[in-house]
Design a protein that fits this description.
Residues 576-660 form the Secretion system C-terminal sorting domain. The chain is an alpha+beta fold and 662 residues long. It folds into four domains: 29-251, Rossmann fold (3-Layer(aba) Sandwich), CATH 3.40.50.11970; 264-386, no CATH class; 389-549, Sandwich (Jelly Rolls), CATH 2.60.120; 556-660, Immunoglobulin-like (Sandwich).
Length: 662
């Protein structure tokens, strides 16, 4: 009997801890992480918001974790502690006294340091794991910029009065913190003026959803009791639904919920919109555009305007149809990206954008943002002009030399076709006379068929070499305008080739029947061996054109920015071989500066801006190499096409195109 009792006791000793471990290690559905920087004049409002959280408190499916840094100056309640503490928020109904479980007092810390933010979030994720994470940045906010010189304590986000620091978007500090944290479901800014396109692009690779305000918020901020109560009732809610709950429970702010997975498409639309704005300015519509800008709703920071409202004013203005169309594309994309809005003003549609009224107020820090590398919006802001005289060139003697089938003086011309029984490549060689970029390809087709468009650089013997770009489409029996998703930048005297690939099509590509020889139209039946079309009696000059652009810079500061960017690119000198590739590509680069991280990442994106893969390289100076096998982060092969490699280390950045052809 004694042995039996001893055995039972032993089993209890063993089994109870197992049950306890299973119960405590089970992940919650949500961990809400609030980075509450009260080391400034918002300290008292932090006390109020903390007590709002305690009305609900943490539950089995919800962890509410707060890191609260207080000030020595503004609020003496709750023991008047002035250090930084971490709390596990528990339920209580006293709305003036914080009674949650104190996990640790970490002393005085700099809440304006991105490393402090990363340390908190990683600590919370490790100790309170969940299926989903909401990270709330609680403090002052000022959008993308670091508002140096302001007498008000508004500095990007998370202004720490003791240190005088803040977490800047333009200087890369916010993205640095988020990269160290890893993926989160929602990033929320209970702070003013943060719901900007520039900020969204910066954080989109780290989070799926973003909640914030285009305008200033009341100091009372979000209603934490309201949305945490909704979450306690429905802990299985998805990120977008929780975002909607946050804004629908807050009655005092202009808030919106944005699907960050769709930001890439909006960025492409803004890029095209900027190009057409520059073209319209060059055509004499500057005053019309300025009027539309001045009629657009702006926010407390007067250079921040509502993007949808601006596009709508452009759409309704007397401007070229191409500009109206791109404005409508921006509006449609915003309708898709913004999932919910709660407005205190009529013309706030969920996303703001920086648009100073003149170049005088342009902030040079803007060039550090991701959007300055991905789009032409910064060129538009800096007063660059789309020079239409560098548009479509076809005749010999132009700045760009391609085919000579179209006389710009209006002389008549005719189109012929040719019969193709096998796979066929038609190509035209173009030569630049100054640095600029390819915006679109225009080709005349005599038949409807599926095609592949290739743009090559020039190799030995003036023949097509590496593929710079590839895309597919369906041709129509007319002139076809084929825009490139991202313009291809070329330097002076660079040759490039435009090739149309067809298979078993009848009279596919229009040719000119004139007797002159451009010596720039080539044909190939295998894509490797090329012959001049005019040497083959079947063909003449192919009707393929290139639409190009260059920019006239209007200020010394702009030239300085471009010079700095070029210097950064020269320092990294990224090279990809082979490019295109079908199995594995070697990506080499030279690192002349190192950052604070122990390891760095080369990031690979698709053409929509979606992060596909990250490749780790060491934090050391000198030549380094990484290899990509064409797989995404899940180990699946990505489709053939164009992707982008991006390196950022220290103060250096470089973006380069890579093509997969299997």
């Amino acid at each position: 009997m004694r042995k039996a009792k001893a055995l039972i006791i032993l089993l209890i000793i063993i089994i109870i801890p197992i049950f306890y471990l299973n119960a405590t290690s089970r992940n919650a559905q949500w961990t809400v992480m609030v980075y509450m920087n009260g080391d400034n004049n918002l300290e008292g409002y932090g006390i109020k918001d903390f007590n709002e959280m305690e009305v609900i408190g943490s539950l089995s499916d919800i962890n509410i974790i707060v890191q609260f840094d207080r000030s020595i100056s503004y609020d003496q309640s709750n023991g008047n502690w002035t250090t930084c503490r971490r709390y596990y928020v528990t339920q209580d109904n006293n709305t003036s006294l914080i009674s949650s479980e104190l996990i640790e007092d970490i002393g005085e810390v700099d809440m304006g340091d991105p490393i402090t933010l990363a340390n908190f979030a990683n600590w919370a994720k490790s100790n309170y794991p969940a299926s989903h994470y909401l990270l709330v940045m609680w403090d002052h906010g000022d959008g993308w910029r670091k508002a140096g010189g302001s007498i008000e304590p508004i500095r990007a986000v998370s202004y720490d009065e003791s240190s005088g620091n803040q977490i800047s978007v333009a200087n890369g500090e916010l993205s640095q913190a988020l990269e160290l944290i890893g993926h989160i479901d929602i990033i929320g800014f209970d702070a003013c003026l943060m719901q900007m396109w520039e900020v969204m692009v910066n954080v989109s690779e780290y989070a799926d959803c973003m909640v914030g305000s285009e305008e200033t918020e009341s100091a009372y901020g979000w209603n934490y009791t309201g949305f945490l109560n909704d979450l306690s009732i429905s802990p299985m809610m998805d990120p977008i639904s929780l975002g909607k709950s946050i804004i629908n429970n807050s009655n005092l702010a202009t808030l919106s919920v944005v699907d960050l997975t769709q930001i890439g498409n909006l960025t492409l639309c803004v890029d095209t919109f900027a190009l057409e704005l520059m073209r319209a300015k060059d055509e004499g519509y500057t005053d019309t555009i300025k009027t539309a800008r001045n009629r657009t709703h702006n926010f407390y920071e007067w250079s921040y305007i509502d993007l949808y409202d601006f596009a709508d004013h452009i759409r309704l203005s007397n401007v070229p149809e191409a500009l109206k169309y791109t404005a409508l594309q921006v509006m449609n994309s915003i309708d898709n990206v913004v999932k919910e809005t709660h407005n205190t003003c009529m013309d706030a549609y969920g996303i703001s954008i920086s648009h100073p009224t003149s170049l005088t107020y342009y902030n040079s820090l803007y060039s550090n943002l991701e959007v300055a590398y991905l789009t032409k919006w910064d060129e538009y802001l800096r007063g660059c002009m789309y020079n239409d005289s560098a548009g479509i060139y076809n005749d010999i003697g132009s700045n760009w030399v391609g085919i000579d089938t179209i006389n710009l003086d209006g002389s008549p011309y005719s189109f012929w076709g040719y019969d193709v029984d096998t796979s066929f490549h038609a190509a035209v060689r173009f030569t630049s006379s100054k640095p600029c970029s390819i915006k679109a390809i225009i080709a005349f087709f005599n038949h409807e068929f599926d095609y592949s468009l290739y743009i090559y650089n020039t190799g030995k013997y003036l023949m097509p070499d590496s593929i710079l770009h590839m895309q597919t489409g369906t041709a129509h029996n007319c002139w076809n305008y084929i825009p490139l998703p991202i313009p291809i930048v070329l330097q002076s005297d660079d040759d490039f080739w435009v090739s149309i690939y067809t298979e078993n099509a009848y009279y596919p590509i229009g040719v000119d029947n004139g007797s002159w020889a451009s010596h720039r139209s080539y044909c190939s039946f295998d894509g490797e061996n090329w012959e001049e079309a005019l040497e083959n009696s079947t063909f003449y000059n192919f009707n393929i054109r290139a639409e190009v652009q260059y920019f006239t810079y209007m200020s010394v500061i702009d030239q300085k920015i471009k010079k700095e960017i070029n210097q950064k690119q020269e320092c990294i000198n990224m090279k990809i071989y082979p490019n295109p590739f079908n199995e594995i590509a070697e990506i080499s680069f030279n690192i002349s500066q190192i950052g604070e991280r122990k390891e760095n990442k080369l990031k690979i994106y698709d053409i929509t801006g979606k992060l596909i893969k990250q490749l780790i390289f060491s934090n050391k100076i000198g030549l380094q190499k990484v290899f990509w096998d064409g797989k995404d982060y899940l180990g699946n092969y990505v489709p053939d096409g164009v992707y982008f490699c991006k390196i950022k280390t220290g103060n250096l950045k470089e973006l380069k195109k890579i093509v997969i052809m299997r």
